[in-house]
Design brief:
Blueprint (H helix, E strand, L loop, with lengths): L1 H26 L6 H34 L13 E7 L5 H8 L5 E7 L11 E7 L3 H10 L3 E3 L5 E3 L1 E4 L24 H18 L2 H18 L3 H9 L1
Antiparallel strand pairs: 1-3, 1-6, 2-3, 4-5
């Protein structure tokens, strides 16, 4: 009896679940033909959205192509500055110019002697900026590996390569001084000349007249010299 009751209760529960599921299925739009309608509407909406996006993109692209500025072509850096290294430490600029002459046209030449603090690696170097780039190859073929000999007979094979820093320092022109060469017209200088000429005339005078002038000046100074006691005596008198 118990088993029969248990089976009946389970069957009734299962029937309730099935009936509830069928009711929900009937009420839901997926169980009817509405699902197809919804699917078609969804496809139409996505298609219309895609078309709209494509139109916007085409418009944006067409507008961007007109507004995009033309990119400037990257200027290629031209290397014209050369350094010649491993020169003898006691070599001077004048001696180097003699060795390198005749030099092609250049607008910058700077020579640096050896730094004693870098002993034993003591080498001079020079920087040259050529106006024509084709002259660099000729200069390299001529002086790369060129052996310089110092006063002691030691050999120094030179090395020619592009300078790591290609810019050239521009020498600033000094402004001309407006007062240069105008000292003769300066009033203070004229006064000085007058006083100096008077002193020369006095020095050229006789010693007796000079002594008389000195005595007269000393008397004037003594007469002008006063003290509080002398002033008091003057007031009493």
């Amino acid at each position: 009896m118990k088993k029969a009751n248990w089976a009946r209760s389970h069957l009734s529960r299962y029937a309730r679940v099935l009936s509830r599921a069928t009711c929900e299925r009937r009420q839901s739009p997926l169980s009817t033909g509405k699902w197809r309608e919804m699917k078609s509407e969804k496809e139409q909406m996505t298609a219309s959205k895609d078309k709209g996006v494509l139109k916007i993109k085409l418009r944006d692209n067409s507008g961007d192509q007109d507004n995009i500025p033309k990119q400037k072509e990257d200027k290629k850096e031209v290397f014209t500055k050369v350094v010649i290294r491993r020169l003898p430490p006691h070599l001077t600029k004048e001696q180097l110019e003699e060795h390198l002459s005749p030099l092609p046209s250049f607008d910058y030449f700077e020579f640096f002697s050896a730094d004693p603090s870098l002993y034993p690696h003591l080498f001079s170097r020079a920087y040259i900026n050529f106006k024509n780039q084709d002259d660099i190859l000729l200069f390299r073929d001529r002086f790369d590996g060129y052996v310089f000999i110092d006063n002691k007979g030691q050999e120094f094979p030179a090395v020619v390569e592009f300078a790591p820093f290609q810019k050239v320092s521009k020498k600033k022109l000094k402004k001309k001084d407006a007062k240069a060469g105008s000292i003769e017209e300066d009033p203070e200088y004229k006064r000085f000349l007058e006083n100096y000429s008077c002193d020369e005339e006095k020095s050229m005078a006789n010693p007796e007249t000079l002594l008389g002038e000195i005595e007269a000046k000393t008397k004037e100074l003594i007469a002008k010299r006063t003290t509080p006691l002398l002033e008091k005596n003057k007031t009493k008198k």
